[in-house]
Amino acid sequence: MLSIFDHGPFAPCPQPFNMAAHVLRRAADTPDKIALAVLHPTRAERWSFARLEAAVRGTATGLLQSGLTPGDIVLMRLGNTVDFPVAYLGAIAAGLVPVPTSSQLTAPEVAAMLKSLRPAALLRDPAVPCPDTALPVHDLTTMKAWRDLPPADYAMGDPDRLAYVIYTSGTSGGPRAVGHAHRAIWARQMMIDGWYGLGPDDRLLHAGAFNWTYTLGTGLMDPWTVGATALIPAAEVSHGQLPLLLKRHEASLFAAAPGVYRNLLKAALPPLPRLRHGLSAGEKLSDPIRAAWEDATGTPIFEAYGMSECSTFISAAPDRPAPPGTLGRPQEGRRVAIVDADGTPVPCDEPGTIAVHRDDPGLMRGYIGAEGDTAERFRGDWFVTGDQGRMDADGAITFLGRADDMMNAGGYRVSPIEVEAALLAHPGIFEAGVTDVEVKQDVRLIAAFYTGPAALSEDELQRWCAERLARYKQPRFFRHLDTLPKNPNGKLLRRGLQPLFSKGADLE
Hints:
This protein is α/β, with parallel strands linked by helices.
């Protein structure tokens, strides 16, 4: 039996189509319902569906009156405020192509984007870094005034046309521009039942910033699509304040990256009687964090796996819990396989590369300006993720790590995820990252880096790992750090661990 999950294609996207019109389709039915509450420590800024749609379509009018035409690319340099999603949907409503970017990017990083994308205009908060440019720049004052303009008609068209562009880290270290079609939002309906269990009566609190793509999709677009209420913490809200906001605003679902769950569990949590479950994505959720959350709240966490090129397509859900140790199963309507280097599905229970079918409606159109890079990601009918996994006969997939994160220790290939999970089970370890290091020519061993209240005895850690891991999987070196190297979204950068080995005399 081969490692293929295929229950048939998802329902085709209607034509003509506009992503923003699809997201805001519930506004006509429930105009007075709260679509968005921006949560401050002592107050909330509330937006009804009617107010939200008026702001979006007024913004579309302003963008078109500024001289932009459908198909133009617009780079967004905005902060963690409601201005971000309003401008994003306004551009899409007008048929423009917004490019949401992290406010943490430096001016030189943005300059490289301007050079490669050649946008027609910038939407900018002056507080967000941006290089000098001769392009038209629309500031916050202008954008807020646009919201009161007469509403533009939605620019309807081919669902396969370009809708937005997001940046992702490339395997070479440089960012790549991922072009997505309007149909991408249609495909996200597979996530609503296959991961969220989301309905119109839900109140979903997402812990991320407005200008993070995980927040844009899971925290905003998807709740609005089904007519639910999105709850987003204001920029000044700390992780420590989230539990009280969850309780005070009666959140029924909570979405966050694993690191946020870890931070919340450092203190006692209040009762959360309205919370049904948590959602996790962005990196692998460790079993200790999952168990601690369930003990503290009495609610499960459902995990999803995906990528910038296709959002999430493997997940657990309330009516389809993941078997222990797995990510879950492909969402209904997806076609997913575990393939070898040639793109041929491997037998069940054998490791390979996680791949999604090239016809998935949520799959990107391609990397903008990098057709060669796009072609390299396809093996026959399959788009290969670069991540390693194993599928059982029931379709459950075990994540084995990124191909370029897989370790080689004594000739054995070892997933860092498995070793890190063993370390994270230790009560004195908050975070852990492992990598293989070259101790002499052609000899590589595993080194572990961790954070916690204090450095632990190496003998203790060796005993701990010996009880949980085969010999060849056990770290031979350990180092306590104040922080682990991470990217701006809080993901562990395992590549940043190897230089720490050469700098740490205590590891030699």
